[in-house]
Design brief:
The protein has 221 residues and is α/β, with parallel strands linked by helices. The chain folds into two domains: 38 residues; 170 residues, Trna Endonuclease, Chain: A, domain 1 (3-Layer(aba) Sandwich). It has nine helices and six strands, in the order ααααβααβββαβαβα.
Length: 221
């Protein structure tokens, strides 16, 4: 049973229904439910639009992946590497998957692939049960660039041909970066054959007013 005291702090009926149903589906603890409400998980998931997506005929992945991600539980300091970020995510894998949403499952880390004579590694490989597709995650500690989009598109073309099963939908790419330029994301991701999402992550839980402002700005981009 979902604790009523938590849900009563949510004024919007649709948001309350979301937290109640997702809490039951995901088996959230009271602490996790409080965190999801405090970080405005519903608002981050249901923003009305974003430029940081390439659009193709496939399930609406953009509305299954919230943003920005709040990863305060990683306890990373100001100076860290992409390797540190990946290690911290794996160490807190359960909480990371909950932050992504209830339907993500872990497949692999540092998955190797060979294209031509070159070897590459995918940071994280997940599967989304609701979208019925692989999710390729690339971790970036800096600003999103057009080169990140090209690299992810390369990974997805390979994953579509070699990793996806015949009854699955095409893989989706998720680029997690510490800073995102909406204009660069729009022009870098527009028109790609594959679905690529760019999302910012934050290493501290912002106050409610700041987070609400950021979500509202995302809606109008």
């Amino acid at each position: 049973m979902v604790p009523l005291r938590c849900l009563l702090t949510v004024p919007e009926a649709q948001a309350r229904n979301y937290y109640e149903s997702e809490s039951l589906r995901g088996g959230w603890s009271v602490r996790e439910l409080d965190r999801q409400i405090a970080s405005q998980a519903y608002e981050r998931l249901r923003r009305k639009g974003t430029a940081a997506i390439s659009r193709v005929d496939c399930p609406p992945a953009d509305y299954e992946v919230r943003g920005p991600f709040v990863l305060e539980f990683l306890n990373l300091k100001d100076q860290y590497s992409e390797s540190d970020l990946e290690d911290a995510l794996i160490a807190e894998l359960e909480r990371f998957l909950l932050e992504l949403g209830n339907d993500f499952t872990f497949v692999a880390r540092q998955r190797r692939l060979r294209i031509g004579t070159e070897w590459y590694r995918v940071d994280l490989l997940l599967f989304n049960r609701r979208l019925r597709c692989l999710v390729v995650i690339d971790l970036k500690i800096g600003k999103f660039t057009h080169a990140d989009a090209g690299q992810m598109n390369l990974y997805l073309n390979y994953a579509r041909e070699h990793w996806a099963l015949t009854d699955e939908n095409p893989p989706v790419g998720l680029i997690l970066c510490s800073e995102q330029d909406s204009a660069v994301a729009h022009y870098a991701l527009e028109g790609l054959r594959n679905t690529v999402l760019a999302r910012e992550y934050q290493l501290a839980l912002p106050d409610e007013r700041s987070l609400a402002k950021q979500i509202e700005e995302t809606r109008h981009r």
